[in-house]
């Protein structure tokens, strides 16, 4: 590159941009995951938990949590020169689920984060993406001090279809999160290719 311009003969690459949702229960690590990989300063819509919200916000198992996402988290990561992911973290509490339909519009796929200490909290997200035929991957966020279970046991507990990928991850670790994001992109693209073959067969 010369003086900020592309070298002659090498036109700038126009990257493909894909939208990925990050969903799951309250306090499962969605905001942390987006922040761990975003190459821009993440947009966060966090508010402090209040006494008024305690009757509706179940914080059992995440008692140290004192903020909550009320709209979305947003971040961006370039996986390759020609591939950029826009990440949208969804709010976890049921009272904010009306945002999910807006956020899922045009999404290639989704990551459903799960916490083995509160596994039932991700059932709603799994059900949401299954019902709307949005390809998704389950990322089990391995919290310190939480019991570790074999992937097959977690899969059975979530009653996942065989084709749904499940990966262990650390939402704080950039490389771990990148593996999850690459996994969901590959899963969504493979599913799209299968559908195309079915239509043309």
Task: Jot down its keywords.
26% strand; seven-stranded mixed beta sheet; 201 residues; 29% helix; 5 helices; alpha/beta
Q: Radius of gyration, Cα only, in angstroms?
A: 18 Å
What class do helices, strands and sheet pairing give?
alpha/beta
Q: Strand order within the widest sheet?
A: 2-3-4-1-5-6-7
In percent, how much strand structure appears in the residues?
A: 25-35%
User: Helical proportion?
Assistant: 25-40%
Q: What is the number of strand segments?
A: 7
Runs with pLDDT <50, length 5+?
none
Largest sheet: 7 strands, mixed
What overall form do the CA principal axes indicate? globular
Question: In angstroms, what separates the terminal alpha carbons?
Answer: 47 Å
How do the helices and strands follow one another from N- to C-terminus?
Answer: EHEEEHEHEHEH
Number of helices: 5
Calculate the mean pLDDT score and round it.
83
Provide an overview of this structure.
The protein is α/β, with parallel strands linked by helices. Helix content is 29%, strand content 26%. It contains five helices and seven strands. The chain has a seven-stranded mixed sheet with strand order 2-3-4-1-5-6-7, with helices on both faces. Helix 4 links the parallel strand 6 and strand 7. The mean pLDDT is 83.
Give the structure's gist in a few sentences.
The chain is of the alpha/beta class. Helix content is 29%, strand content 26%. The protein is built from 5 helices and 7 strands.
SSE arrangement:
Layout: E1 16-24, H1 30-37, E2 43-48, E3 67-80, E4 83-89, H2 98-104, E5 109-114, H3 123-131, E6 136-141, H4 151-158, E7 166-169, H5 174-200
Parallel strand pairs: 1-4, 1-5, 5-6, 6-7
Antiparallel strand pairs: 2-3, 3-4
């Amino acid at each position: 590159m010369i003086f900020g311009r592309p070298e002659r003969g090498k036109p700038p690459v126009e990257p493909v941009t894909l939208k990925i949702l990050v969903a799951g229960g309250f306090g499962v690590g969605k905001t942390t995951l987006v922040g761990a990989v975003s190459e821009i300063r993440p947009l966060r819509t966090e508010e402090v938990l209040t006494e008024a919200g305690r009757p509706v916000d179940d914080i059992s198992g995440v008692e140290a949590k004192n903020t909550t996402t009320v709209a979305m988290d947003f971040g961006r990561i370039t996986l390759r020169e020609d591939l950029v992911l826009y990440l949208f973290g969804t709010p976890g509490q049921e009272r904010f689920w009306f945002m999910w339909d807006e956020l899922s519009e045009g999404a290639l796929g989704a990551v459903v984060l799960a916490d083995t200490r509160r596994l039932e909290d991700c059932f709603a997200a799994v059900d949401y993406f299954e019902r709307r035929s949005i390809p998704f991957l389950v990322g089990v966020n391995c919290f310190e001090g939480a019991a570790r279970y074999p992937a097959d046991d977690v899969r059975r507990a979530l009653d996942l279809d065989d084709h749904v990928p499940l990966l262990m991850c650390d939402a704080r670790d950039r490389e771990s999160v990148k593996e999850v994001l690459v996994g969901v992109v590959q899963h969504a693209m493979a599913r799209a290719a299968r559908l195309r073959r079915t239509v043309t067969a």
